[in-house]
Amino acid sequence: MATERPFGVVILVILEVLGALGFLGLGGILVAGGGLFAMSDIPGFEFVAGIILGIGAFLLLLGIISLIIAWGLWTGQGWAWIVTLIFAILGLIGGIIALIAVVGIIPVIINILILYYLTRPHVKAFFGKGPPPEAPPPPPP
């Protein structure tokens, strides 16, 4: 594994942590809201409360997984590189589907950039997925 962490990996970690905080925050709000619905005396709200609690719990789980992925990226774990690559491919597919639905091209561009960056030799070397980059020649005397 390369000893120096590429700057782009730091950016990916920051984005992953921000996403995790969003998942955890929204999941917490939904779990709390679902609990409030469950305490309501209004008929039929139990079903709504169950759905809200389920979605909230799922988002909390996604937040925890995102934090684990961020740690893996930060420490240069090979599995984190693979998982991030897979999520970027899935995001690209989702972005293309959204593009067809006239939502926008931004997610497509972001995922293409992530895929491109993760396949650069120095980034792959940091995650143990390729040979370490050669050291530059010493400067002339």
Can you offer a commentary on this structure?
- By secondary structure, this protein is mainly α.
- Helices cover 74% and strands 0% of the residues.
- It has one domain.
- It contains 5 helices and no strands.
- The longest helix is centred in the N-terminal third of the chain and has 32 residues.
- The two termini are 31 Å apart.
- The mean pLDDT is 86.
Care to count the β-strands?
0
Shape: elongated
Specify Rg, calculated over alpha carbons. 20 Å
How do the SSEs run, as a string of H and E?
Answer: HHHHH
Percent of residues in β-strands: under 5%
Count of individual helical segments = 5
How many domains? 1
> Termini separation (Å)?
31 Å
- What's the pLDDT, averaged over the residues? 86
Helix content: over 70%
Low-confidence stretches: none
Report on the biggest sheet. Answer: none
- Which structural class do the helices and strands define? mainly alpha
